[in-house]
Specification:
alpha/beta; two-stranded antiparallel ribbon; 12 helices
Length: 344
């Protein structure tokens, strides 16, 4: 196959002819471009300082802002979808989600890749307090109406959804969940995520569209699959099991921030209860017990006072007191500098 180079007014030159040119000529032709892309974007200090950059408005609390890419993750069955949809309804209806304030109604698309359509509709209704600006995209309606699978790793579907978001002035796109919606992406392959998804999320951010991606945790409690998905996230919200977990149609879980770029301090860990009340869901919350969070971090692999103090934002003295309390309660052993959770 012949490789052609462009020169002059765009005439094609056979590859073999380039051997007759000098190095200087080749260098000049390589940097001559009919359409400059990068040069207009290079700014001096003064030009950068003079830019009128809009402040990204907060969407929910201090931690979720316009254009963010955020992650909600946890073990299967804990309540990730409940929380994601509660956030969606709060944004669409301009009301608070727990202690997190929402000042302005936002248009939301909630894309579901897993639930049956009747369960999906029931959840939307159960969490609704009034009409809001929320749109839904279910894998089932895509199949029923077009006989196609909803697969957002497909470039054509990405482009169509981006166009729909812009046309309908969508502020937030919630994707529940990665394993179902991105079927052609190898979960453990960082390059696959970069090549098929990361660029799309970045394009949405440039357009001011925030993305929430719901992910599964593995058996060790960490996000399942490649950590590449975490790199560009502005915030990561983790769900853990709470004592007295709901065994009915609702959910009970603890949330805590594993990453938070937007607010100066992490919001406190919260103990949530989504409780059925007729055909509605009543949401209650409270600040989580620090001992519960302390134990969870040890089970996740942090086993020294220094590690736990840094992760929990506590003094070493406070962590030491928690450890001694855990030892008195019988579930913790202090062995030198290490904390070990006793086998049941």
């Amino acid at each position: 196959m012949k490789i052609e180079r462009r020169s002059g007014a765009g005439a094609a030159t056979p590859a073999h002819a380039s051997s007759n040119r000098t190095n200087d000529e080749n260098s000049t032709s390589a940097i001559d471009s009919p359409q400059e892309i990068l040069a207009p974007a290079i700014l001096t200090d003064a030009e950068l300082a003079a830019l009128d950059i809009p402040v990204r408005p907060s969407l929910l609390g201090e931690w979720f802002k316009s254009g963010d890419y955020g992650i909600i993750y946890g073990r299967r069955g804990l309540g990730k979808s409940w929380l994601a949809m509660a956030i969606a309804r709060a944004l669409a209806e301009a009301r608070n989600c727990g202690p997190w304030q929402c000042q302005t109604a936002r248009r939301v698309i909630f894309a579901d890749g897993e639930m049956s359509l009747d369960d999906f509709r029931d959840r939307v209704h159960a969490l609704s307090e009034r009409d809001g600006d929320m749109l839904t995209l279910s894998h089932q309606t895509v199949f029923d109406r077009k006989r196609k699978a909803l697969c957002l790793s497909d470039l054509a579907q990405q482009n169509e959804l981006t166009k729909l978001c812009e046309e309908r002035k969508v502020d937030v796109l919630i994707l529940d969940n990665s394993a179902c919606l991105f079927r052609d992406v190898a979960e453990n392959d960082a390059d696959d995520f970069r090549d098929k998804i990361e660029g799309w999320f970045l394009d949405l951010r440039r357009r001011g569209i925030a993305v929430i991606l719901v992910l599964h945790a593995g058996r060790n409690g960490a996000i399942r699959g490649t950590s590449k998905r975490e790199d560009a996230a502005f915030w990561i919200l983790r769900l853990d099991e709470a004592s007295g977990r709901d065994n009915g149609d609702g959910a009970r879980f603890i949330t805590r921030f594993a990453k938070n770029r937007n607010s100066p301090n992490d919001p406190p860990p919260l103990d949530w209860h989504f409780k059925p009340d007729g055909d509605k869901i009543v949401i209650t919350y409270r600040e989580a017990d620090s001992m519960m969070i302390f134990r969870q971090w040890i089970e996740d692999g942090l086993n020294t006072c220094s590690e736990l103090a840094e992760e929990m934002g506590l003094s070493k003295g406070t962590v030491s007191k928690l450890a001694k309390r855990g030892e008195r309660e019988g579930w913790l052993t202090i062995k030198g500098r290490k904390y070990i959770v006793n086998e049941p």
